[in-house]
Amino acid sequence: MGAKGDAARKRILDEARMLFAQKGYSEVTMKDVCEAVGMSRGGVYRHYTSTEDIFAAIICREQEQAIAALKKAEKENRPPEIILLTFLRNRANYYLHQESSFENAITEFAQNSAKGKAILVERAKTSVKIMSHLIRLGCESGAFCCGDEVAAAEHLLWLLEGMAKHNALIPIGEDEIDKLIKQFKVMLGYRG
Fold first, then answer.
1. What is the C-alpha to C-alpha distance for residues 169 and 172, in angstroms, rounded to an integer?
2. CB burial class (10 A; 0-12, 13-18, 19+) of residue 30?
3. pTM of the model
4. Hey, is 18 helix, strand or coil?
5. pLDDT tens digits, 110-163
6. Rg of the chain over all Cα atoms, to the nearest angstrom
């Protein structure tokens, strides 16, 4: 498919992402997506066969964007501690916005879809791999001092995931995010 097909897929994913954030994973239908995008069923089905396929594509696209941003930052020779701390703050700041309810839809996706569970397990493994790589580089440069990069990355991921769930019940403010980032620095033995 050409540029027109790429634009249609992007529009479908963007609109569907908003629907999933508003309604949750299991409440969104293909009819909802068609109406939100302003396309016929055939138009949407040409690109995606189900809401599961759409949701999986959204997750994969976001993972690809995160990896591309990491590669760009590394190519620009940014210090690993700056890359990691920027990533952690951006991820935490995401919870300040209404669309953070998409994280709850992600949990629902994993609970209701074997494909979703597999994608999210891989997403978590990739996140830990990226974060542990940055932590290791930060330790090598002297910016961090922690004994087990993988364990530290797993704990950071769990804290971020827990924050997403907590935010659904009790909205998180900037003060909590500042405290969280300070705690991340303590966990990593940050020397900056």
1. 9
2. middle
3. 0.84
4. helix
5. 999 999 999 989 989 998 999 999 999 999 999 999 889 999 999 999 888 888
6. 18
Q: How far is CA 187 from CA 82, 130, 147, in A?
A: 15, 17, 10
Q: Which residue has the tokens 């055939």?
A: 42
What's at 151, amino acid-wise?
Answer: A
Identify residue 84 by its one-letter amino acid code.
Answer: L
The Cα-based distances of 46 to 26, 32, 39, 103 in angstroms read 22, 16, 11, 27
The encoded tokens of residue 18 equal 């908003």
Contact 55, 20 (CB under 8 A): yes
Which pair of structure tokens corresponds to residue 165? 């769930």
Helix (H) or strand (E) holding 88: helix 80-94
